[in-house]
Design a protein that fits this description.
Elements lengths: L8 H6 L28 H12 L4 H7 L4 E2 L2 E8 L5 H6 L3 E6 L4 E7 L3 H5 L4 E5 L5 E2 L5 H4 L2 H6 L8 E6 L5 H6 L6 E6 L11 H12 L4 E6 L3 H13 L4 E4 L1 E2 L10 H12 L3 E5 L8 E4 L19 E5 L4 E8 L8 E7 L5 E5 L10 E7 L4 E11 L6 E6 L24 E7 L31 E5 L1 E3 L3 E5 L2 H18 L5 H10 L34 E4 L2 E5 L15 E4 L4 E4 L11 E5 L3 E4 L9 E6 L2 E5 L5 E2 L4 E4 L2 E4 H6 L8 E4 L4 E4 L2 E2 L5 E5 L4 E5 L39 E5 L9 E6 L6 E9 L5 E8 L2 E4 L12 E11 L2 E4 L3 E5 L2
Parallel strand pairs: 7-9, 7-10, 8-9, 10-12, 12-21, 21-22
Antiparallel strand pairs: 1-2, 2-4, 2-5, 3-4, 6-11, 13-20, 14-19, 15-18, 15-20, 16-17, 16-19, 23-24, 25-30, 26-29, 27-28, 27-29, 31-40, 32-39, 33-38, 34-35, 34-40, 36-37, 41-42, 42-45, 43-44, 43-46, 46-47, 46-48
Length: about 850
């Protein structure tokens, strides 16, 4: 028996055909029979398993109807976990782990469909579900339109920048490489096992556009099929030195389209590592999206898309495949239970999604259907067991589908709705001068929810329908083509300003966009159409009494006394051993100290003062980190220290345990700490002392002459462990905030400690933690000073919480500003 696919013959004879744009006849759709599944798995997977045990020959058809591929009775699913499930236990079920995404506590597993409940019952498993599958945003003249041609003419092509194109396939890649339409491909990987050049040419076309705009940039081409693939591709992009990720795909039913969820978290994994994430906004603005509140004037349990209309119709041709995704504002788990149905022109239910939501399951339903005949079909949404009637949202694919009732606003799928994503809308290159926006280009704002406020999206607009080798002269339509234009433009800008960070590149592109539509940034064009200004000339060498710094964070100093902080034009910060102190205006700078300066644009600093001619002594005080410099170019090995009446060389002081054997400089171009062997008087540095009251000494006789050979800097990127404090908090963001709790899961103890990790820990003034159950109810909250907080697993009433899965959110105060993390998961298993 296939559940609710068709009405009973008697029902068909008894009920007249549905006339669309009217109410459904009473009883047209039978109420679902709840299975009461207690295992942590999707109901549709449980049903599939039961069918596989009794009618294994039906597995391919049923699997296909719920969006799963199957072969030989086996299916691939995503296992979310508190603790990694035993590989041996999975193999004992005749299954295998295909890949892990450990940082997101999930893995992809292939098992016989019949053992899915056994998989869900394994220790450590929190939920088993169908994979999320990305959809390409599809429905070159762009180089000159956006101003990239002038940059090419000036010899600026993005050299030194690596762009990762993460997509669903690269058909035609070999041909594009052989004909010169693509070059500089330094990395390829197929994470799906189906072949890099199989499935779709979409990724190849996107890579062509990146190469057209930034011909000097190096490309990493990565084929993915689900969220585990995406997580692993992003990690590989980070590990292989990517600066930019271009992703022209949308993901559905992963959040309430508010920027939260695992796909958004994967984006944040990239941006927290310093990468710029460029994403297509999607093509759901012209008919394939609906959103609204529950309306049911006649009280029959069916949503009214319009007064008296409970069926949202559209047309399909025979053989057309359609996917329909429904979610509602009750993430991450809910007991508010809606159901989704697809009916034909006679009112027959031809497909349905009746996942049970009983508290822990996500608020999602999805239908996958291929039309056997051409005709009119309709979407029906039913309230099975709903009390608060949360707001609903519906997406359909293909995005060329036109619903009778559609909503263009708030139609941006994940991850384009994440604040960390640089999201791109589309304007046809033929309409580039004044617009309008392509009618299908998805629009903002992002959704408001319990976890996020609405935000304006997209961020900019770029050309589409440009010709490519892959799609030919008829053009590559959709925001899929627009996003790689922006990725290429970002590569040009970043290569010309290697010292800046991704936030600066993003701001630069927005600030130089040409405003269209409503004044200012809006939910159609964002900041406007992409436009690169004339490229800047290369800077000339600095004279001896001045120095040119790149944009962004710089560790700075000056080679003379009597120099005010105002020469930098921005506030400076100096670490006093506990926190950063601010210097500005007439505050005098000490040439033996280092300072942080955040420069919005590159700046040449000129000074006049007295260069010390005698030895320089500086008392470092309390043991720990200290920001230092020297008024002269000075070798590390010539530095001396005085402590307790003794004077020692650098090596002797290290051996005596006075100081760590590393001087840290800051590479502004790369945005990271690196070990230094020579002190430049225009730069600041970090050293870490082990004793209180140490004095550092620079001997005038040991300063390096102008022509002296400089020992090499160790260009070694390092992890956050053992690093000096991070730059001050002027530009800190949630992407830089890393928190965790230990232990997690909580097993044989009653306490867990929440900690801020990494360089930001040194800047935390206060910390707040809030604990929620899976229904979103606050069960505990607390606060502490500093970067750690201990929780005794009690609730607001002081009682120990029951075993189970909970959510937590951390807020920290840095520089007077509160920064909030996304929701994270913890488990109590005592």
């Amino acid at each position: 028996m296939v559940w609710r696919r068709v009405l009973l013959l008697a029902l068909l004879l008894a009920i007249p055909p549905v006339v669309f744009s009217q109410d459904l006849p009473a009883g047209a759709i039978p109420r679902k029979h709840a299975l009461g599944v207690v295992l942590p798995m999707e109901t549709e997977l449980y049903r599939l398993a039961m069918i596989a045990r009794t009618s294994p020959e039906s597995v391919p058809e049923i699997a296909s109807s719920i969006g799963l591929r199957s072969a030989d009775g086996r299916v691939r699913v995503i296992v979310e976990y508190y603790e990694p499930p035993s590989v041996e236990a999975i193999e004992a079920l005749d299954g295998r782990v295909l890949s892990w995404a450990r940082q997101f506590r999930m893995c992809e597993v292939e098992v016989p469909a019949a053992v899915l409940p056994d998989l869900a019952a394994l220790p450590g498993v929190s939920f088993v579900r169908r994979p999320y599958t990305p959809v390409p945003d599809v429905v070159s003249e762009g180089v000159s339109l956006i101003g990239a041609g002038a940059w090419h003419g000036a010899g600026k092509g993005g050299a030194g920048i690596r762009v990762a194109v993460i997509d669903g396939g690269f058909t035609g890649l070999s041909l594009a490489l052989s004909q010169g339409e693509l070059a500089n491909v330094i990395f390829t990987r197929d994470y799906t096992g189906t072949g890099l050049e199989a499935d779709t040419e979409h990724g190849t076309a996107c890579a062509e556009i990146v190469h057209d705009v930034a011909p000097g940039a190096e490309l990493l081409l990565m084929k993915i099929g689900n969220e585990v693939d995406l997580a692993n591709a992003v990690q590989d992009a980070i590990d292989n030195g990517a600066w930019i990720i271009s992703h022209s795909m949308g993901w559905f039913n992963t959040n309430f389209y508010d920027g939260t969820g695992v796909i958004g978290d994967i984006v944040r994994q990239a941006t927290s590592a310093g990468l710029l994430w460029v994403n297509a906004s999607g093509n759901h603005g012209a008919g394939s999206h609906w959103e609204g509140d529950w309306q049911d004037a006649d009280g029959d349990g069916y949503l009214e898309f319009a007064p008296g209309d409970e069926v949202n119709t559209f047309t399909l041709n025979a053989g057309d495949a359609v996917a329909i995704w429904l979610t509602w504002d009750a993430w991450p788990g809910t007991a508010e239970d809606y159901d989704l149905y697809l009916v034909d022109a006679l009112g027959n239910v031809v497909a349905s999604s009746e996942d049970e939501q009983s508290g822990a399951q996500p608020p999602t339903e999805a239908i996958h259907y291929t039309a056997p005949v051409s005709g009119t079909y309709g979407i029906v949404i039913a309230a099975y067991n709903v009390s608060t009637f949360p707001r609903l949202e519906l997406f359909c694919s293909p995005n060329s589908l036109e619903l009778e009732h559609y909503v263009s606003s708030s139609s941006i799928a994940a991850p384009g709705n994440a604040v960390e994503s640089f999201t791109v809308g589309a304007i046809s290159w033929r309409d580039w001068a004044y617009g309008p926006l392509e009618p299908y280009s998805s629009q903002g704002p992002t959704n408001a929810s319990r976890f996020a406020a609405p935000r304006t999206k997209p961020d900019v607009a770029a050309p589409d329908k440009v010709s490519t080798l892959t799609y030919g002269p008829e053009g590559f339509p959709g925001t899929s083509a627009s996003a790689p234009h922006v990725a290429g433009a970002a590569a040009l800008v970043w290569a010309d300003n290697p010292g800046i960070g991704s936030a600066w590149v993003r701001t630069y592109l927005e600030n130089n966009a040409v405003d269209l539509g409503p004044l200012g940034k809006d939910n159609l064009y964002g900041a406007g159409k992409l436009s690169l200004p004339a490229p800047s000339p290369q800077p000339s060498p600095s004279p001896g009494n001045s120095h040119t710094y790149p944009p962004g964070w710089n560790m700075v100093s000056v080679p003379a006394t009597g120099v005010p902080a105002s020469v930098f034009g921005v506030p400076l910060w100096h670490w006093n051993g506990v926190y950063y102190e601010t210097l500005e205006g007439a505050d005098e700078l000490d040439p033996s100290e280092g300072y942080w300066a955040y420069l919005p644009t590159g700046k040449t600093v000129s000074v006049s003062g007295v260069v010390p001619g005698e030895d320089v002594f500086s008392v470092l005080g309390t043991a720990g980190w200290h920001m230092i410099s020297s008024p002269w170019r000075y070798p590390k090995g010539a530095i001396r220290f005085v402590f307790g009446g003794q004077e020692k060389s650098w090596d002797e002081a290290v051996a005596a345990g006075w100081v760590h054997d590393v001087i840290w400089g800051y590479n502004a171009a790369a945005g990271r700490y690196e070990q230094a062997t020579v002190i430049d008087p225009w730069q600041g540095y970090w050293i870490k002392t082990r004793v209180n009251g140490l004095t550092i000494v620079f001997l005038a006789a040991q300063k390096m002459s102008a022509g002296a050979v400089v020992p090499p800097v160790v260009s070694k990127a390092v992890t956050s462990e053992g690093l000096p404090p991070a730059p001050p908090s002027e530009n800190v963001s949630r992407a830089e905030l890393e928190v965790a709790n230990f232990p997690n899961p909580i097993t044989d103890v009653h306490t867990t400690t929440f900690k801020v990790l990494g360089p930001m820990a040194s800047q935390v003034e206060e910390m707040r933690v809030r604990i929620f159950d899976l229904a979103g109810r606050l069960v505990w909250e607390g606060e502490a000073y500093g970067p750690e907080l201990v929780w005794h697993t009690d609730d607001l009433a002081g009682q120990y919480l029951a075993n189970g899965v909970y959510l937590y959110q951390v807020q920290v105060k840095v520089g007077g500003t509160w920064i909030t993390t996304n929701l994270k998961v913890l488990a109590i298993y005592r």
